[in-house]
Amino acid sequence: MKRWRDIGTEMFDPVVDARTEERMFLGLLEPREAPVEYAGVVAVLRAARSASVMESGADLRERVVASMVAVISSGPSSELSVAVPPPTLPAGSRRGPVPFLPRLRLVGALVVGFLAASVGLAFAGALPGPAQGVASSLFAHVGIHVPNHHGGAAPHATIPPKGSTTPAGRGLGPGRTKTPAATWPGRGNHKGWRDHRHGGDQRHGRDGKGREGDHHRPSDHHSGRDRGGRGSHGSDTDGHGSRGHGGDGSGHGRGGSSHGRTNHHHSQGR
Amino acid sequence: MSLGEHFDSVVDAARAGAAWAVGELYESLNPAVLGYLRSQEPGDAEDLASEAWLSVAGGICRFQGSESDFRRWVFAIARRRLIDFRRKRSRRATDPSPPERLEAGLEPGDAEADAMAGISTESSIALIRRLPPDQAEVVLLRVVGQFDTEEVAEITGKRPGTVRVLQHRALARLARILSAEAVTP
User: Fold this and answer.
1) How large is the ipTM?
2) What CATH number labels B4-92?
3) Which residues of chain A neighbour B76 with C-beta distances below 8 Å?
4) Same domain, A132 and A192
5) Is residue A147 part of a domain?
6) Is the dihedral of CA A145, A148, A150, A154 positive or negative?
């Protein structure tokens, strides 16, 4: 109600039963037979019914029919496939179901984006601690360095062939030039990346020197953090380069140095 | 105009591309379709009807059903063309319908007296168009398209109960409009 004169409309509440309504729509009710309030409505509906006999021009008919024949002769067109009866939608739904393919593409794009972001964060070392550790170990299996959650890099999972040698002096940091770092203690001690701490009492040759020609196993390079153990070697984080250390376990310290296999103390406990 | 028992043979011939059969289908239904579209979009009804019939031609090879199914199908197509047309027009928003065009057929004065005296088709259509769109559509499909409640529900995608409610409200609203205009000087 917007104006005072609408009050009559608001207060007027005509009532008519369903059967009478149906007769009104079917044109079976004369205005005089209808309820008083609906006499005008009956007249309106009867007048509107005559709209169904509206004719179009003859020339328009000819043109439309000729176009229809041409369309039919050209076969069913995909453009005109909307002519099929509309599917019955479930009650309450105003839109059809979402097509499967776009939804699949969307899910695929989300998955790829998530993976890319995760890999990027893993390489940056920005994942949460446990996730970074998992990512580090996973990438280590394929030989990719990714920092673990301790800040170090996971070791190589791939082991270079035996006999590969690296210069012993490379990677020894300042102040430790005389200490062979992370030398592979012996055959069969495949601690892999977990073999990151060696107690200081291990014997790396008598003179404790890594020499050129020592055989090192690169997989021992990544020894994690130096947590105070004496003689920890080869940590990437302590500034001592580890490249060139580690051998194949077949002997160290040329010139009489020998490594006692059993004397290695792997202090993995933290 | 109903084709009756000849409907199947006419549709078969139309599927084969016979012009006479296509013409018979067109003549049997186009007046009602055109009346329905004119009641909704007076200025563009013939274009919309032509588009609807072209869509019918594109899909008639896949159509299967009786004559009443065919009527319902054609009206559903016409309604879809109408909805598409309105959607495009609302996007362009270059041709707003002037109010005087909507009210053109409705003459001022005592509407009830005019109704009793015999209201014209255009006036009645204009009056129906003053209803809310969903109510007007139901009334026009029932009156101009001469469909029953279930058929209107199928064409519009609504439930039959919803259609009954809409038509009931539409009649009550029409009665209120006529009554208000009868008492308004």
Assistant:
1) 0.72
2) 1.10.1740.10
3) 85-86
4) no
5) yes
6) negative
